[in-house]
Amino acid sequence: MATELSRRELFVLIAALFGSAGPVASSAADTGLLSSIGTLDNLRRLGHSCRSLLPADTNKLQELAGFDAGRAVNVQLAAFITKREADFRSGKILLIEGWVFAEAECALAALCAQP
Q: Are 54 and 106 in contact (CB under 8 A)?
C-alpha cells in the first residue's frame, strides 16, 4: 500500500509539473500536461470537477496519480508520466468540460482541489 504524501511533497510535485522546480520539470513539460491545463488555478478548477468523479480518499487519489511518498521527486514525476500514458492507452480517461484527461491527471487535479 502506498504511503500518503505530505502537503509539502505534493506541493513540490505540482511545482515541478508547472516548471517551478528547475531541471526536474523538463520531462513534465514534454507531456503536454502544461498546455492542456495551463495554470494552477485551472488545475484547481478542474480538480473540483474531478473530485465528483473519483474516490475522495487521498491515498487512492495519490495511487491513481502514480505518486508514493518516500520516493525522490524525479521518480514521482516519472511515475506520474508513466501512469498518465498508461491511462490513455488503456482508456482510463475522463471527459470534463469538453477536454479528455487521463485518470492520473484528474487525480492530480483532485488532490490540488482538496481543502
A: yes
